[in-house]
Amino acid sequence: MGSSKDSRDDEEYNLPLFETKESKGRLAYRLFSVSTFICICLILVYRARYIVTGFADGGEFGESGRRCWIGLFACEIWFTIYWLFTQAVRWNLVYRNTFRHRLSLRYEEKLPGVDVFVCTADPTIEPPIMVINTVLSVMAFNYPSENLSVYLSDDGGSELTFYALLEASHFAKFWIPFCKKFKVEPRSPSACLSNPPTAALNSQEWSNIKILYKEMEERIETAMKLGRIPEEMQAKHKGFSEWASVSSQRDHQTILQILIDSRDPHAVDIEGCKLPMLVYLAREKRPQHHHNFKAGALNALIRVSSEISNGQIILTVDCDMYSNDSESIRDALCFFMDEEKGHEIAYVQYPQMFRNITTHDIYSNSLCVIYNVELRGMDGSGGPLYVGTGCFHRRETLLGRKYSKGNPLRIDTSVRKLREGSVEELEDKSKALASCTYEENTEWGNEMGLKYNCAVEDVLTGLSIKCRGWKSVYLNPERPGFLGVAPSTLGEALIQHKRWAEGHLQILLSKYNTFLYGHRKISLALQMGYYSQDCWCLNCFPTIYYLLSPPLCLLKSIPLFPKITNPWFQPFIYLILTKYIYSLVEFLRSGGTLKAWWNDQRMWMFRRITSYLLATIDTIRKLSGFAKSGFVISSKFADEEVLRMYEQDTIEFGTTTPIFTTITATLALINLFSLVGGLKRVIVDVEEGKVFEKPLVLQIVQCSLVVLINLPVYQGLFFRKDKGRIPTSVTIKSVVLALSVCIITSSLYL
Ligand SMILES: O=c1ccn([C@@H]2O[C@H](COP(=O)(O)OP(=O)(O)O[C@H]3O[C@H](CO)[C@@H](O)[C@H](O)[C@H]3O)[C@@H](O)[C@H]2O)c(=O)[nH]1
Ligand SMILES: [Mn+2]
Q: Record-annotated residues binding UDP-alpha-D-glucose (predicted)?
């Protein structure tokens, strides 16, 4: 038996650490895609022809009709181009799989140092108890503690967060051995302990650790309520004295505290095993220095960690994203340490998944199609985006190193892992690296580290890494690797998208425009893939046009589409049917429900007409120097009423910025009024026996669909009584606006 095991091990020794599979049904998809393209071309031909002749099959459509046709033609040309980008991320999907046992067979004794960066920025909307749950989950990775270091960057510079981390450093002594002994998952205490204990667990130990956790939670909550740290606590750690000289969150010196020094022989858990390094950092902030938000925080961490642990692999997570699978580091290493392909991989990205998604995902937070289809597609053509969280990087590529075939980058575990010197020496030395002035006249934020001046610093950084010749890998295993918190109100969901869309538009308008910057550096398919997100904002105008022109033309009986008996009708109907059927199938296969798909369609419409429109306006204002960039941090905390509504999948309009609801409601009402007006005309026509004279069928169908998808909006406007309804002032404004638009257009040119 022994020998057969040995020979099996020998065989395993030569096998790769990961595999890549192509998706099934690729050919079928490509054929479908080509058929769609043919129909799109036919539609463009139809449009161009009739614009020239001025005749549609209902007769002449007149000068105002021609203008609408030209507008529609322009939109359709744009949608065609955009459609091509969306094909680039569907053409070549790949699936990745890792072989952890091979990794441990070959490298268990030679595992590299891994530094985990957790970012937080505000103790009120990112509660410290949540932050330390994330920290504890990554401290409990199934990975040798002497190779693991955890850094918390606190841009809130908060004593409360520091205190919570100090508590976590004590609790870790119980938590880590508990996790390892019973192999519990997930290793965020709050998530783990809220489940009932499994049979394998010793119930006594379970309740003991639960009591310990609850006590800690209570102490932290008390401090939160007080808004400061009780004196007797303060006496327990020298770190608190730093806050004596902190004047505000925006104005303070660097605070750096090594809470667990893993080199210290006394830094052990209750079983006597080593603990991972744990470091708190609040980088220096001064009002006259721009701090560059999360990118600035990560760059400070890169430098500070290089002084302390210098792990070759860096994992970045947002403070709400706890590790849901303690094997994730090992999975990521299967890529970096693969003998054949590992040397060209710069980062391994996990999907961003959330623990608070409701069954029908009312705000379409899960982005399941992006994560189950589009990123796999990008992986097939060079690598997924870096999305900021749940991503493993090589330190050196993050620092700006170029890929070179002749000088392959291998994980070298012989490099010294932990620096020498006393804690105080280390702290002092590293502090200087996190000062406001350190980056002056350096390449930091540009050629080194995370890039600045972009609202999606992560996406831009990932792009530039790939343009330096590297590949990236997308890993979406059965068990989610990380779980975060998604926005729980409409307003937050739309504002988050506004920030993302703004960032992508910035990329589009900068020298990093993927077609220029990526030319000859990354594949054309990947360039197009980036464009499918970079062009989000540009979709707002054609979408708004498409939501205005057909209904208003319906009101005026101007035909925009062919009638059913016309052969040109066929490409239209083929496209409409297959588009929706395909999108539904894709959504269901990505794990969504039918209702969630319907909600997803609504949210994309909302995003396009509000988030993207305002993002475009703001970007223009910033480019022309009228406004400054900001970073609206998404709240990870909601009050009970809001949570209740969220859990019932009811849209919360009440707290949404009025401009968002006004636009949404006005467009919804215009479609409603036009549908009513249009149907009235049809009825009159039927009575006069001439129903088929005007080919308005498709316009009526489109209007009805828009009305249907907006049902929750009408409800919020007129029927709801709760706090989440649309405020009366917005209702009045949008009714007046919508009515005026309808009345003006139908009285003009008649
Ligand atoms: O000045 C700042 C602002 C934010 N953050 C942190 O950045 C993270 C992301 O912020 P969040 O408000 O949660 O934004 P999201 O839209 O949820 O973040 C997504 O989009 C961002 C880019 O816009 C990426 O950086 C994130 O990783 C990605 O999860 C959080 O941990 C924050 O604490 C800072 O450290 N400093
Ligand atoms: Mn977030």
A: 126, 155
Assess contact for 600 and 361: CB atoms under 8 A.
yes
Catalytic residue ranges: 155, 458
- Burial class (CB within 10 angstroms; exposed 0-12, middle 13-18, buried 19+) of 484: buried
Q: Any binding-site annotation on 115?
A: no
Q: Please report the atom of ligand 1 found closest to the CA of residue 632.
A: 12
Please name the residue whose Cα sits nearest to atom 27 of ligand 1. 388
319 ligand 1 Cβ < 6 A: yes
Which class for 224: exposed (0-12), middle (13-18), buried (19 or more C-beta within 10 A)?
middle
Atom of ligand 1 nearest to the CA of 631: 3
What's the Rg (C-alpha) of the chain?
29
List of E strands, 379-470: 391-394
pLDDT in tens, 421-448: 889 999 999 999 999 999 999 999 999 9
From atom 10 of ligand 1, which residue's Cα is the shortest distance away?
Answer: 633
pLDDT at 1: 39
**Does residue 706 have its Cβ closer than 6 Å to ligand 1?**
no
Q: From ligand 1's centre to the CA of 519, what distance in Å?
A: 29
Q: Which long-range contacts (CB under 8 A, 24 or more apart) does 296-301 make?
A: 296/445, 296/450, 296/452, 297/119, 297/121, 297/153, 297/155, 298/117, 298/119, 298/153, 298/449, 298/450, 299/439, 299/444, 299/445, 299/448, 299/449, 299/450, 300/153, 300/433, 300/434, 301/117, 301/151, 301/153
Give the range among 52-56, 174-178, 232-236, 672-676 with minimum mean pLDDT: 52-56
Spatial CB neighbours of 451, under 8 Å, sequence gap ≥ 6: 295, 445, 457, 460, 461, 464
Q: What is the ipTM of this complex?
A: 0.99
Atom 4 of ligand 1: nearest residue by CA position = 294
Nearest CA to ligand 1 atom 30: 318
Kindly provide the residue ranges of all beta strands, DSSP E only, lying in 197-335, ordered along the sequence: 255-260, 277-282, 313-318, 322-323
Q: Which two tokens stand for residue 230?
A: 């009780």
Instruction: Say whether pTM exceeds 0.80.
Output: yes
**Would you say residue 28 has pLDDT above 50?**
yes
Task: Give me ligand 1 centre to Cα 411, in Å.
Answer: 29
Whose Cα sits closest to atom 26 in ligand 1? 388
Which residue's entry shows tokens 């941090």? 633
- Reported as type and span, the H/E element at residue 21 is strand 18-22
From the CB of 120, is ligand 1 less than 6 Å away? Answer: yes
**Ligand 1 neighbourhood includes 126 CB (under 6 angstroms):** yes
Closest atom of ligand 1 to CA, residue 118: 31
What is the per-residue pLDDT across 325-339, written as a single tens digit (0 to 9) for each? 999 999 999 999 999
Pick the atom of ligand 1 nearest to 633's CA: 12
Max Cα separation, the chain?
95
- CB environment 521-558: b (16+ within 10 A), e (fewer): bbbebbbbbbbbbbbbbbbbbbbbbbbbbbbbbbbbbb
Residue listed under structure tokens 């892992």: 417
Structural domains of the chain in order of their starting residue, each with its CATH number: 110-486 (3.90.550.10), 539-747 (no CATH)
Which candidate, 633, 648, 661, places its Cα nearest to that of 728?
A: 661
C-alpha to C-alpha distance for 104 and 110, rounded to whole angstroms: 9
Mean pLDDT of 683-704: 81
In this structure, what DSSP letter does residue 90 have?
T
Nearest Cα to Cα of residue 563 among 452, 462, 459, 701: 701
| Reported confidence tier of residue 52, pLDDT bands at 50, 70, 90 | confident
361 in a labelled binding site: no
Q: Which residue type does 515 have?
A: F
